[in-house]
UniProtKB/TrEMBL annotation, chain A:
Lineage: Eukaryota, Metazoa, Chordata, Craniata, Vertebrata
Species: Lates calcarifer
Family: Belongs to the adaptor complexes large subunit family.
Keyword annotations from UniProtKB, A to Z: Cytoplasmic vesicle, Golgi apparatus, Membrane, Protein transport, Transport
Pfam family, one: Alpha_adaptinC2
Name of the gene encoding the protein in the UniProt record: AP1G1
Designated name of the protein: AP-1 complex subunit gamma
TrEMBL record, chain B:
Subunit structure: Adaptor protein complex 2 (AP-2) is a heterotetramer composed of two large adaptins (alpha-type subunit AP2A1 or AP2A2 and beta-type subunit AP2B1), a medium adaptin (mu-type subunit AP2M1) and a small adaptin (sigma-type subunit AP2S1). Interacts with CCDC32; the interaction is direct and mediates association of CCDC32 with adaptor protein complex 2 (AP-2).
Protein name: AP complex subunit sigma
Any single GO CC term annotated in Swiss-Prot or TrEMBL for this entry: AP-2 adaptor complex
InterPro entries found in the cross-reference section: AP_complex_ssu (IPR016635), AP_mu_sigma_su (IPR022775), APS2 (IPR027156), Clathrin_sm-chain_CS (IPR000804), Longin-like_dom_sf (IPR011012)
The organism's taxonomic lineage, starting at the top: Eukaryota, Metazoa, Chordata, Craniata, Vertebrata
Subcellular location, principal: membrane
Keyword Protein transport: yes
Subcellular location: Cell membrane; Membrane, Coated pit
GO biological process: clathrin-dependent endocytosis; habituation; intracellular protein transport; psychomotor behavior
Family: Belongs to the adaptor complexes small subunit family.
Gene: AP2S1
Gene3D superfamilies, A to Z: 3.30.450.60
Coiled-coil residue windows: none
Membrane topology: Peripheral membrane protein
Length: 721, 158
């Protein structure tokens, strides 16, 4: 059998292949040759063959038949053989094959070998792919090597120990004695790996954490030496001595100082020193600063230090390097909850980042902007965010839209209503995602902003012309057209004015389209009906309505029949009924109910506020002012049905109060003043607004219904102050 | 900790793949393809970090490998090669970026102005360099002089 070709030859040959098929053919041929060579148990060329096999494996071809050969190579005495053997083991074997257990004995022998390089190889392999069983068997050896004086081996042993701990956490105690003098090493490499080992131990076990807290002064000293010492050519990177070690020490300090006051105090000085002395012109310095900032945020640092950290992040945001901006935005996102005010100072820079080119920076800037919106800056922020919503990628539109909507809801006030409406309109026009229950909210908003009606209906009409697939948009649009259709065709349009027939075409199109849900169709039908009082083409509307009188959809059919009746029998009532909606007050019983023209008669449903209201005042017991007037002579009892409506004053402030209505004690008021009915209402009044209540009582007395209205203004001041 | 290190060229050929975590062979192949897909479409205006929930492309990664939600990829492009390191989300991005650069500088010194062909023909030596600088998913030795000294010693044993 001729000598197998050398590795170089093989690589060169494979690279000359011009097609995938040619390459595969070459490889198959070579594999066959290798397999027969393995069968012959040829020691001299085994190394070469396995190397070739590994190359083919790297190209993506299967190479399992070489696993046993790797083991044989490991067992050989030659260093080159061992090297390729271990490499093959790391590439081809893993925990799931049983073969790897055979390696254990070999590794054990090699760990005790006389040459440090062989020991190093063995440690390396164990550290990369040792399974739990192997780790358990060999932990003792690793621990022994951890104590040796050879720094080359000590480094490897330390990281190997990290791997062992990750696989078998119970063995952690075994390495404890060896860690005693690890930090007193001079060798940076050993120091580095020891810090990693300590970090791993502290992360895994709180006992170790407590045990190692006493090392904090030592770590601080090492860090100080690193910063203060002069130029050290070996570990220097762009003028900073051993930045990797600095970063790792900072990380360990972070873990040790978390939720521990004494350690945090010991670290304060050094953290401030690192933060101010590190050069920021290169990426290296910024890496260290970043780690410092993370540490300051996590431990119990004093507020001056925290402000320093946030200022560093602010400086990062102005950096040209986008990596650093990205990193700063990520950290600010984490700290914005706790250090809100400090982050506010950098708001303008953050908003500028919305215009960045990188997608991930934009996303983080957007989230941060939403977190920073408050009552003071909402006007400016909203402008920027709306601009962003218009120009951003589709994958952002959903989140941005819902964010803008939430912000507008939370902080929009009456004076900003037009802004509010524009904001919300933009969201809806963005189309992709609006919450389902936002449709009634939006409708209410539009109703209340009287001066915006014309503009609103124009924009929505235009949007409807483009696209009728987004249901929330279509619903809101058709409602608006129904209400304000006269404004649409009256000449107030800035652009081309649609004529009545066009508008009706659009609405009819909605009715027949496959994209419309039944709810949308209901909206469209009602809108058409309302237009009968605003437009002049009544006959056409009558025709449409009568067609749907025989629709399969029950809801549509019912509506159509009722509207038909309206045309025929109650035509005199039609204008009054289809009048424009009045301004609606935001009632407490908010929820996904359809906005129906009501007089405020709502059932006292138990409205659960989002958080249970802190009972800051004792629950108000309401007595009807008429408790004295039911002295009827007959003894029939009065069955009452209480229905309240609590309206906020002034009505334009939304949701100043939150209510919790509990059920009344009974729904029968006994006659002859023999008893009372009480109903407890819990009011959450965070803004200390004056409490007034309007009550409407509907009850049946002697079988006939009676209605009574009352207002309660005389709540004692201490109940709402 | 580091989960894996990959060196790929623009065409998608793997020049080095070092795994510090268990994956099946087909999972490894899938990962290599996905990483390549994510990394090659990015240009100078993108950051050097890919976190899974940012990109729609890497969404595929997170669906195939649910544990990938806790990882991120830090990569850097040198000529026609992409050096990618996959780390935990909590790790320091900038420090690993420096780590990649450190590694590339060592390669450059060792192979005397390294080019892609060097990595192809001497792949086992590249693995040795990796093992000298990284171990068990952590950075082991950061001093370039020391690493080069060791490598020369090892070479003399051959």
């Amino acid at each position: 059998m001729p000598a197998p070709i050398r590795l170089r030859e093989l690589i060169r040959t494979i690279r000359t292949a011009r097609t995938q098929a040619e390459e595969r053919e070459m490889i198959q041929k070579e594999c066959a040759a290798i397999r027969s060579s393995f069968r012959e148990e040829d020691n001299t060329y085994r190394c070469r063959n396995v190397a070739k096999l590994l190359y083919m494996h790297m190209l993506g071809y299967p190479a399992h038949f070489g696993q046993l050969e790797c083991l044989k190579l490991i067992a050989s005495q030659k260093f080159t053989d061992k090297r390729i053997g271990y490499l093959g083991a790391m590439l081809l074997l893993d925990e799931r094959q049983d073969v790897h257990l055979l390696m254990t004995n070999c590794i054990k022998n090699d760990l005790n070998h006389s040459t440090q390089y062989v020991q190093g190889l063995a440690l390396c392999t164990l550290g990369c792919m040792g399974s739990s069983e192997m780790c358990r068997d060999l932990a003792g050896e690793v621990e022994k090597l951890l104590k040796t004086s050879n720094s080359y081996l000590r480094k490897k042993a330390a990281l190997c120990a990290v791997h062992v701990i990750r696989k078998v956490p119970e063995l952690m105690e075994m390495f404890l004695p060896a860690t005693k003098n690890l930090l007193s090493e001079k060798n940076h490499g050993v120091l580095h790996t020891s810090v990693v080992l300590l970090t791993e131990m502290c992360e895994r076990s709180p006992d170790m954490l407590a045990h190692f807290r006493k090392l904090v002064p030592q770590l601080v000293r090492i860090l100080k030496n690193l910063i203060m010492s002069g130029y050290s050519p070996e570990h220097d990177v762009s003028g900073i001595s051993d930045p990797f070690l600095q970063v790792r020490i900072l990380r360990l300090l972070r873990i040790l100082g978390k939720s521990d006051d004494d350690s945090s105090e010991a670290m304060n000085d050094i953290l401030a020193q690192v933060a101010t002395n590190t050069e920021t012109s290169k990426n290296v310095g910024n890496a260290i600063l970043y780690e410092t900032v993370l540490t300051i945020m996590d431990i119990k640092s004093e507020s001056g230090l925290r402000v320093l950290a946030i200022n560093i992040l602010g400086r990062f945001l102005l950096n040209n390097d986008k990596n650093i901006r990205y990193v700063a935005l990520t950290s600010l996102l984490k700290t914005v909850q706790t250090d809100h005010n400090a982050v506010q100072r950098h708001r303008s820079t953050i908003v500028d980042c919305l215009k960045d080119l990188d997608v991930s920076i934009k996303r983080r800037a957007m989230e941060l902007s939403f977190a920073l919106v408050n009552g003071n800056n909402i006007r400016g922020m909203m402008k920027e965010l709306l601009y962003f919503l218009d120009s951003c990628d589709p994958e952002f539109k959903a989140d941005c839209a819902s964010g803008v909507f939430l912000a507008a809801e939370k902080y929009g006030t009456d004076s900003l209503t037009s802004l509010h409406v524009t904001a919300v309109l933009s969201c809806v026009l963005a189309g992709s995602y609006v919450r389902d229950d936002s449709v009634p909210n939006l409708i209410q908003l539009i109703t209340n902003s009287v001066e915006m009606h014309a503009y609103t209906v124009q924009r929505l009409y235009k949007a409807l012309l483009d696209d009728i697939s987004q249901q929330p948009l279509v619903q809101v649009a058709s409602w608006c057209i129904g209400e304000y259709g006269d404004l649409l065709v009256s000449g107030q349009c800035e652009e081309e004015e649609p004529i009545q027939d066009e508008v009706l075409d659009v609405l009819e199109g909605l009715l027949v389209s496959n994209l419309s849900t039944p709810v949308t169709r209901g909206y469209a039908l009602t809108a058409i009906m309302k237009l009968s009082t605003r437009f002049s083409s009544v006959n056409r509307i009558k025709k449409v309505v009568s067609i749907y009188g025989s629709s399969i959809d029950v809801e549509l059919q019912q509506r159509a029949v009722e509207y038909n009746a309206l045309f025929k029998k109650y035509d005199h009532m039609r204008p009054a009924l289809l009048e424009r909606m009045p301004i609606m007050e935001k009632t407490a019983t908010n929820g996904p109910t359809e906005i129906v023209q009501t007089n405020g008669e709502t059932e006292p449903s138990a409205v659960e506020p989002k958080h249970p209201p802190p009972v800051t005042q004792p629950a108000n017991q309401v007595r009807t002012p008429y408790s004295g007037s039911y002295s009827e002579q007959d003894s029939s009892a009065v069955t009452t049905q209480f229905s309240h409506d609590i309206i906020t004053f002034p009505p334009s402030v939304f949701q100043t109060f939150q209510l919790q209505l509990l059920s009344p004690s009974s729904n029968v008021v006994p006659a002859l003043n023999q008893g009372t009915v009480t109903q407890v209402i819990r009011v959450l009044n965070p803004q200390k607004q004056q409490l007034r209540m309007r009550i409407k009582l509907t009850y049946t007395h002697k079988g006939s219904p009676v209605q009574d209205l009352a207002e309660v203004n005389n709540f004692p001041p201490q109940s709402w102050q | 900790m580091i989960r894996f290190i990959l060196i790929q060229n623009r065409a998608g050929k793997t020049r080095l793949a070092k795994w510090y975590m268990q994956f099946d062979d087909d999972e490894k192949q899938k990962l290599i393809e996905e990483v390549h897909a994510v990394v090659t479409v990015r240009d100078a205006k993108h950051t050097n970090f890919v976190e899974v929930w940012d990109q729609l492309v890497s969404y595929a990664l997170s669906v195939l490998f649910p544990q990938f939600r806790n990882f991120k990829i830090i990569y850097r492009r040198y000529a026609g090669l992409y050096f990618c390191i996959c780390v935990d989300v909590t790790d320091n991005n900038l420090a690993y970026l420096e780590g990649i650069h450190n590694f590339v500088e060592v390669l450059n010194e060792y192979f005397h102005n390294v080019c892609e062909l060097d990595l192809v023909f001497n792949f086992y030596k590249v693995y040795t360099v990796v093992d000298e600088m990284f171990l068990a998913g952590e950075i082991r030795e950061t001093s370039q002089t020391k690493v080069l000294k060791q490598l020369l010693m090892l070479q003399s044993l051959e």
